[in-house]
Amino acid sequence: MAARPIWKGQIRLSLVSIPVEMYSATRSGARISFRQIHEPTGKPVRYQKIVQGVGPVDADEIMKGFEYEKDKYLLIDPDEVDEIKLETKKTLELVQFVDACEIPPIYFDKPYYLTPSDELAEDAYRVVRDALRETKMVGIGQVTLRGKEYLAAVKPCGDGLLLETLHYEDELRDAEPLFSSVEDAAVDQDLLDVATSLIERKSGPFDASAYKDNYSDALRALIKKKTSNKSSKRVETDEDNSAPAGDNVVDLMAALKQSLEKADGAKKAKTAKSGKAAAPRRKKSA
Predict the structure, then answer these.
(1) Annotated region Disordered: where (predicted)?
(2) What Cα–Cα distance (Å) separates residue 64 from each residue in 54, 81, 259?
């Protein structure tokens, strides 16, 4: 299946705009993942949003809570958050250029590939790529993805361009309190010479293909072995949406009764006021 761009827009360098598409540079399915299974029944373990003493709750009953003091929350409706989300900007303007080694590695977050949208954009795309190569600079700008504005760095990568989102300064933890106990004292020169010689002896170009995820390889081998073994324990499950047994059912039943009584009371009051039957309330979709 062909990769789908997660963002389409343009890179702007002064008065030059280059149509580009952005693709994730990492594969989310590359790592093995498991699902929790309840062994006695063979059913998948599901996670529900539960309120203590109430049980499972509907999504339309949930608001966002900001803890402004210990155990005190300011309630904010999700619609209010949606209203202030930035519209997905279609332009990534490179407003500054810095030396490629000037950005500390701790600032880098996620990598994305940038490709020209069409053949007409390729000439200008190559010019920006080669100019960054020649100057050994990184372009800095901001891009809006999924309603959030990210700081981003654009740099050459093979025949194309790589965009890496960056953490903002206030997102990083101050390291000084953690390193304050490490004394800034002189080290033994003989030990330093040995360590330096060892580093120089093992120095060389970085080759990512030389490193393998041994844990994942062993896990795949285990799965392959157990799959081919007919005696390996297996379960077949047909997941349903029925309420789980136990205390939550009691809590849920109590909550439903309370909701029903509340709805009936509101309906009677409305009927008495208007003199006609009230229309049933449509439930919001999750």
Answers:
(1) 227-249, 262-286
(2) 18, 9, 21
